[in-house]
Amino acid sequence: MKSTQKQTTINNIHCKVTFNDQIRRFELKGTEFTQLKNHVSSLIGLPADGFVLQYVDDESDLINLSSNEDFGIAVDVSGGLIRLIATAGSTPSTGNTGTRRHYCRKQYQGYGKGGKGERLSHKERHQKKLELLKKFLSEMPQDNALTPQQVNRKNHLRNKIEKAESRLSNWQEREKKRHSDKRKRWEKKECKKNDRKSSNQFPPEVEQQIKDLKSQINSLKPAARELRIQKKQKKYELETCLQSGTGDKEAILQEIVEIKEKSGQLNAQMKPIRDNIRTLKGKQ
Predict the structure, then answer these.
(1) Among 81, 83, 82, 49, which Cα is nearest to 66's?
(2) Does residue 94 have a pLDDT over 70?
């Protein structure tokens, strides 16, 4: 009687109905089950006797909806929004249907995001999902007060928690091994670097000779760089001359030959200097 009295005090009832993976939201202006059934019938395009209705209660169970009393209870436990499931035919859907699985998935929606919309890391997402699953399990009644449907749901949650813990443990082991391998590679690299440094220790007089020879090479490098740039420009001019048919091709070719000769002379000057550096390093 209390639920019936409460129905008469409600003018507008917010509802959301799911039918064949389609979701419609509406506001029912009335308190009778027949009004609800007729409104849903107009939305999904089926006659009132061609489908059955269920609602999702506060424990995420699907409850049959077939009378004004059922409708009143649904309003009481809805929390402001009645979630309806419409199934074509005369048999209501069970807790193992795709619609139920879809609704259960929506409970976990957003567990991959942190505050202010930032993405969580792989480990943080798994930890948060595990926390949610444990929270859902803790909110269920004791085993001796469960309905058959709730027993199945509780077992399902326990299996998911076990799998989530196993995945998180395996991921942590892989992450630990990856960090260990990375550390070993870094230590090996540092060891090689230290070996090279120790093998490259020269007496002060040899160090000075190598430094003087390197400075001679560095003094010749700008001229060699300028010749490379000139050679590249002349090759571009030659290519343009051949494509357009204008310009003195022979003169450009002669300039390229002269640039090559100068480059060869510079390389000939630098080669003995480099040989001396290698000889000094090889003696130590």
Answers:
(1) 49
(2) no
Among 201, 233, 255, residue at a domain's last position? 201
Task: Check residue 97 and report its DSSP letter.
Answer: S
Do residues 71 and 33 make contact, with C-beta atoms less than 8 angstroms apart?
A: yes
**In sequence order, what are the residues at sequence separation of 6 or more whose Cβ sits closer than 8 angstroms to the Cβ of residue 271?**
none
Rg (CA), the chain: 41
> Most confidently modeled of 58-62, 109-113, 157-161, 228-232?
228-232
Instruction: Give 87-123 as a 3 state SS string.
Output: EECCCCCCCCCHHHHHHHHHHCCCCCECHHHCECCHH
Give the separation between CA 36 and CA 10, rounded to whole angstroms.
14
* CATH number, domain with residue 38: 3.10.20.90
- The pLDDT assigned to 22 comes to 84
Q: Are residues 83 and 133 in the same domain?
A: no
The pLDDT > 90 percentage for the chain reads: 17
Which of 159, 184, 201 is the last residue in one of the domains? 201
pLDDT in tens, 227-279: 999 999 999 988 888 888 888 888 999 999 999 999 999 999 999 999 988 88
H helical segments located in 78-121 = 98-107
* Average pLDDT of span 104-125: 55
125 and 195 co-located in one domain:
yes
SS3 state at 168: helix
Residues 20 and 97 in one domain: yes
Count of domains observed in the chain: 3
Contacts of 38 (CB under 8 A, 6+ apart): 48
19 & 94 share domain: yes
For the entire predicted model, the pTM comes to 0.33
Q: By residue range, what is the domain housing residue 168?
A: 109-201
249 shares its domain with 186: no
- Say which residue the tokens 């060891």 belong to: 191
Q: Are 107 and 136 in contact (CB under 8 A)?
A: yes
